[in-house]
Structures are given as C-alpha cells and as structure tokens.
Structure prediction request, 383 residues.
Amino acid sequence: MIRLPVAGGGVREYEPRAEPLAVPTGGALVSRTVFSAAHVVADPYADTTPDSPAAVDWDATLAFRRHLWAHGLGVAEAMDTAQRGMGLDWAGAAELIRRSAAEAHSVGGRIACGVGTDQLTGPADLPTVRQAYEEQLALVEETGSQAILMASRALAAAASTPDDYLDTYGHLLRQASEPVVLHWLGPMFDPALDGYWGSADLDTATETFLEVIAAHPDKVDGIKVSLLDARREVELRRRLPEGVRCYTGDDFHYPELIAGDEQGFSHALLGIFDPLAPLAAEAVRTLDTGDAEGFRKILDPTVELSRHLFEAPTRFYKTGVVLLAWLAGHQDHFTMVGGLHSARSLPHLARAYELADGLGLFPDPSLAEARMRALLTVHGVPR
Prediction:
C-alpha cells in the first residue's frame, strides 16, 4: 500500500497494481491520422532559473519521440505541450524543431511543427507579426516538416478586426509551399488568446475561421481545434471544405470525436496522447478493423485521467504529463523547463499517479511506485 495525500489534508491508502497492461507496438495507423503533441525533457543539472532560457536534455527528448513513433503515432513538435511560451522560447523551439525533424527523417517518423510568433518580446504591429510568422514558417519548411500555424498572442494583441486575421492568415497560406494545419487554441489553454479570430463570441469567431479556410482550401490540410467543446467541433468539421481534415484537440471528448458518426469523424492532435501513446495506438488499430465498440472500450476509460490532467487552470496540464513520463521511466527526473514542475499541487499529482496506474500505463509499476514514494517523501508525506 502507498499513502497518497488528499486535498484539504490527510492521506489515504492505495494499492498499486502489480503488472502493467500488455500493449503491443505496431505499424502505421490507417483509419485516422494521429499526432501526439510531445513534451520536452529538461536538463536537471543545468544551473538555471525560471527566467533563464530553457536547458533541454536533447537525448531524452528525442528518445521520447522515438517512443511515440514506435507506436505508430506522429509527433506534433514545438507545440503547447512542449511549453511554447511557458518555459521554451523561440530559440529553444527552433533547435527542437531542427533536431526532431532530423530524427524523424532518420527513423521514418511523421512530424508536424508549430509555427508562431514567440520570437517577439513586446508589442508589435501587424506587419511585424506577419514577418515573425514568415520566419518560423521558413524554418519549419526548410526541415521538411509539415507546418502547423499556431494561434499567436502577438496577433491577438495587434488585431482589431476579423479582417486583420483574414489578411494575416491569407498572406501566410499563399506563401506556404505545402498544405498546413491551422490551430485554434482556446483561452482555457492560453488566456492571452481570448477573442481570437476577432471576436470573443465563438459563433462569430467560427465564421471568420471558416472564411480563412474557404479562401485557401488547397493550402489547408486540416484544422486543429482545442476548445473543449465537442458539439462545436462536430458542427465545425461538418462545414469544412472537402479534403480539409479536422484534428481534434479536445482532451475531454476525444474518444467520441475520433470514433465519429454517420456524417464524419475527427483525426487527432492531442497532448493527452503523450502519456497515452500505447493505449491510443492500440485503440486506433482496433478502429482500423472497423471495431468502433472495441475502440471505445480501450479509450473511454482514459478520459478520467485526461480530464484530471487538463482541469483548470488547463494550461498547467504539462506538469502532469511530465510526471507520468518520469513515473513511466521515459526520463530520470521530474524537472521541467521554467520550473513548471511546481505548477500542480501534490494531491493533484498523487491522483494522476493513481489514475495512470489503474490504467496500467506504467511499463514497470514497481518503478513508478518507488518514484512516487520518493516524491511523497520529499514533500513530507509520512510512510
């Protein structure tokens, strides 16, 4: 038994499972295109502060990407999960993109990389925002990676009308050499993005978003929607031009959205698939056979863990993701760039451990238990 802290004080006993869930690796996924947004592994020996440039353990970071590719998932690189704008600056993101793209090409893994404007450090006008996007788009395309046009804090601050978004994105899409993924990240993930697409009213914003796509359908591979609103995502994907995919970014409703309905389905680009990679891949392989019920049977039980990790403030979900990577043995420490390992409470982390262990996510449950006990001891939880 292990004693886990509970919110408000006190502890309760939990019996860890003895054996992991047996999940095989396999080849490419067929019925859905699935990306996992991937976290970065910090260098715990670097003498840094939260204000310092990120110190990344490149070997461990790339090894984790190989783990994702081995399960048949694509890697969505330098995204929110990699702490873009929350510990990882543009210089670090650019290096991450270069290294991960080279690794992807060497092992035959699929990769798409985030394009933003985070090299801007202060207020900027629209031409400057556009230039920043262009710089990052050029780098991603030079690496041979697919581009994901991320929502920009700088654009949200500089734009005053929907036309400012239409002009900016229209210019970028005309410049893109290959079809891109457009990313709509909601304010629950980043409060600075409130009112994106020119309106805080989501219905109005949706019309502007669709107008951008309709004007350049040949340059849009798909959209990645992170609004945690399943109904809105379904309505939006039904209005997409033919050939434009919807990649769900809804970490609350992903099983039903990926399974789909008689009018279509969502592909996936999800942060929760970082810790869930083996189960996510097995579920989609089951779906590849036409077994939608089996797909849901595998993936539905994971939703409780995902909702826990992504509970408000949602932007701190990365802390739980990295905790689980450490407990699963993918890295040797629980340290994050920017000091973000302190962003969640001990009871929150304890519950994440319990839920993940219950799913059988840890390849070595005894290692996960030992590491969780060590973390609890550091925080003064009695044995």
About this structure: The chain has a mean pLDDT of 96. The beta strands are 2-5, 11-14, 34-37, 74-77, 111-115, 146-149, 180-185, 220-226, 245-248, 267-270. The chain has 14 helices and ten strands. The first strand starts at residue 2 and ends at 5.
